[in-house]
Amino acid sequence: MYSDILFKTWLQEQTPRAPLMKNEPAFYRRLEQSLDKARKDNGLITVKPRWDDTVVDLTTSDFLSLNRTGRIREAFKSELARHGDFVSAPPREIADFHNSETAWIAHSGFFANVGVLEAVLLPGDAIVYDELSHASTILGMKVSMAAEKIPFKHNSLDSLRDVLESLKNSGPAFASGEQSILICVESVYSMEGDICPLKEFVDLAKEMFPAGNAQFIIDEAHSSGVIGPKGSGLVQMLGLEKEISIRLHMCSKALASTGGVILCNKTIRSTIIQNSRALTYSGAPSFPMVASIRAGYQLLISGETQKAQDDIQRNAKYFFELLTTDPICEEAIDEGLLTIPLADDWEQRSIHSHIIPIKTPSHIQLYPKERAASDWFCTRTTQEKR
């Protein structure tokens, strides 16, 4: 059974290797010693040897099954056969779809985030970011010119208010609008699966900084194709296109392609061109890359992915229902062996993400993974680390 093969292969990869390399060059032995630290907690990241449709995949980012079903390949071949304009047309079409003034296609979503943060913060400005922000945001902050880099508690309106209040009271520059604040959030957090209370955040920033110097950048990596009209994202679901300065959409997940898209106005775009080494020195995306992105977006625009998007909501609700009514699951939660953070009040939420974390103590994490494999589910363990 393929799921058993995957589990056994994964388990073998967690076996320490450094002790077996006494006669190998010290350079490689030291690297294996560092990897053994991850293996000790069954945390070594592994790659599946091959793909097999006999298991339910809960490990990849193929949320709409465009890759598995071959729909993206057919759309890609059709796109290439059109001999279309792959320079100016795709960004314009993407911008129109997202109700944005401009769209910039970057080689990856990771470096799109880094490149934007490198460019748009001027000396004296501040970055305020959710404490669970993605690694690309952390790296982008390091190369930015921001004078202040302040976290707030995850998805907490009160914590954000406290941080903004402290900046406002730190001197007249922020209060008057002479210096800017960029607030970094994600629409769906990839490890937690929860959704940003974006409307409340925007209202707070507008109330506290009426000059408009507190603006937002939102990473929509995990809402692209999954949330909003035709998978256009959280911002468009909430009708906040005019309120968010920068939106980042990743094409490597639901769209089954690669690259990232920066949605912004012309001022932001010009600033990126002027200041971002990460983006301006990376070269233009290749025609095949742009064609695959365009093919994915055409599937969204045409409505062909709507059923798959609806299925995600249906399956999430069904999954919550099963978990919260299963007596064994209930007993495991009571015994402290299982935690499902998003299960609380799930029926009151109007929208669900496709990410539902199930947390277990590290000493028993092998059991749920093995049980899932026996039931034809392919899963992946994660660590409390970003």
Automatic annotation (TrEMBL):
It holds the Pfam family Aminotran_1_2. Gene3D superfamilies: Aspartate Aminotransferase, domain 1, Type I PLP-dependent aspartate aminotransferase-like (Major domain). Signal peptide: none annotated. Its cofactor is pyridoxal 5'-phosphate. Keywords: Pyridoxal phosphate, Transferase. GO terms for biological process: biotin biosynthetic process. Residues 83-325 form the Aminotransferase class I/classII large domain. GO terms for molecular function: pyridoxal phosphate binding; transferase activity. Belongs to the class-II pyridoxal-phosphate-dependent aminotransferase family. BioF subfamily. This is 8-amino-7-oxononanoate synthase. It comes from Lachnellula subtilissima.
